[in-house]
Amino acid sequence: MIGFGSSLAVFVDAPLLVDAFGRFFQPDTLARLLVEGLGKAAIYFIIAVGLTLVFGLMGVLNFAHGAFAMLGAYIGGVLLVVGISSTTGSGVRILLFIAVAAVIFALLTAFGSALEVGLVRPIYDRTPMYQILLTFGVGLILEETARILTSARGIQPEPTWTAAASTIPAVLDARYSILGANIRGFYLFAIAAGALVAVAVWAFLTRTLYGLYIRAGSEDAEMVEALGIDVRKAFTIVFGLGTGLAAVGGVFLIWDPTYGPSVLLNIDVLLYAFVVVVIGGLGSFKGTLAAAVIVGVTDSLTTWLFNTGIVPFPGLSEVTIFLLLVITLVIRPQGLYGIEEVGGH
Amino acid sequence: MDTVTDTTAAHARDDEHWLREYAREHVPHLLVIALFAVYPPIYGLLLRTPLSAEANAFLPGTTFLIAMLFLGLFAMSFDFISGYTGYLSFGHAAFYGVGAYFIVLVANGDVPGIPAGTPFVITMIVGGLLAFGLALAIGAVSFRLSGVYFAMITLGFAQVAYELVRNWNYVAVNPQDGPTLSGPTPEIGIPYVDSVSIALGRLAGDSFENVLGLGIDISATLTSYYAIGAVVLLSYFAMQRLIHSPFGRVMIAIRENEERAAAIGYNVFWYKMVAFGFSAFFAAIAGALFAAFSRGASPDETFYFLVTADALIVTIVGGIGTLAGPFFGTAFYEWLEDILSSEQGGLAPYLRGILPDGVLTADIAGITIADLINTVVDGRAPLFLGIVFVLFVLFVPNGLLGSVRDRLGNTVGKYVGGRLERYRR
Fold it and tell me: Where does the sequence pass through the membrane (chain A) (predicted)?
């Protein structure tokens, strides 16, 4: 057995370190990592924004959120596999993908609304723990159902369903040289989608009547109710929309080179979404956007740093993400844009 | 939730010796212990009767019984902090992992300063103390928060530990699969006294033949069952003692109304810290028992978030805020798992054996009954447990033991004690 000293020496290799730092600060590497980070951030944002809206309005920490993304990935995967043959062109594939995302958004929004009315509504008056427990149970059931269905159809439930992941069009799988940086097309696609979703959600919140109800309900649900507005309807809508958005994020994960449809998404996505919403401040739209960018870029930078020579310790990128969560909670429990009095005493 | 009133009939006669009253209140404990003690031999006997197929399918086998013990202890330790102080410890798996990894690493000679031959009981307790210290460190920053935020920060700490352990090649050649115990077989008993030490494990453990000349053989697995059971029992009584002490009263006060507890003058921060430490200690003991029995530990079975989630589920099913409840919840979970897996008997092999071939191969919309059994029954405990869990959250929020207490209006021990007292007269 090797001792502590010698095992640590394995981690840090001096000439390699200098070399890696040299490569790190080359503008093309940095630019590539930044754009990839933004691509990741876009998907994290699409998934996490529903979680933060649900918490902001109802105070429910939705532990089934990852399962909704998983459902989106699987159902989307089925539709893509059915609709795309090896001869389908890239343009058709992307159009089909957008159609699939829209269908899944509608389906899962309805599903989420039904879930809210049927299961979550009866327990609003209980302590937050029971809502955590209930949604976690729902997530567990969804994950197991996915396992049963996939293995019944002869698909490996984990690690990933490659048939669905490989429907990615050549246009998005290829790398493009932009300002000297070598960027995978998928990330640009994700950034565009993320920006679109961000604008849409922002417009919904600030430019529509229901958005107004939701923002008011997040401030003071009782007061909104006293003004004669059926805040329960807003609850249902927000829970539905959150579910739908998580599922759309799941659809994007199908083509994401680091994910792909698998039942593992349930927990993986859930934990990352938690990190994003907690850092941004639970219930804050702006915070979630900022935190998604922070987490996405950190993820991309640290993944590169810890896989490419400086410190060959692949887990450190995840460690960094969770440390971000811990440090945020220690220094600023309410998150970047959260409301002061939640969290601490 | 369960403020225990001491106005039961047991107090009616003040002249009675306190020990008798005490003993009466432990009658339910004795019954449960007796049940667990005599169950394996009875199970063994049933397997030799014509009912063997049913017994094998529907009664928990011995490996699941042992898992019941250490996972039950872990769930109880989780409930100790979460159910009694109201602070949901979402990173509890980290302490379980510390206990498990510590005994494996010590036994493999990988911990500097502690020789590989250190008796298991000592390393188990040292591992527990280590977890206690870790809990104090985590608690020092985490107890500044409450509610959902406390759950999140403890989860964050546990995930950091999980990712570190999963990738650190010092702990194992393949850290993703975790280390295997390569040293001597762990023994439970008095350290350095060989005659009162019992080796654990399915293969390398001690076994006894023809015990006391009664013609009863105790296999290695069964020996481990009793030895681990003894440790779990001791731990349970230690936690029970803590909860019924003035210290435990303050824990409950913190759960019910922390501000009031602080206003009365209790230093709630340190009460929470120490309670967290104790719960981490017992979680580590549970982890050590797990690693000793299965001769190894993997990150996914110890440090992972889902390990905490399992404890949470059984705690709710058994009754949060009741110490024994999580244990019964675990028993239920493991029983369900045994029925629905084909590792030791189980429903799927039973159905395959009992149903005639014509039924098994009957084709319904392209799927045969046999396929249905394989996909929906075999190894599907998490699905059914998830459904049971959601139903419990909705309709039985106090869990099994909590609901029984509500019905009786008191703890089971006090109730039975009071009843016995009445019948005695």
Answer: 44-64, 71-88, 94-120, 185-205, 234-255, 267-297, 309-331
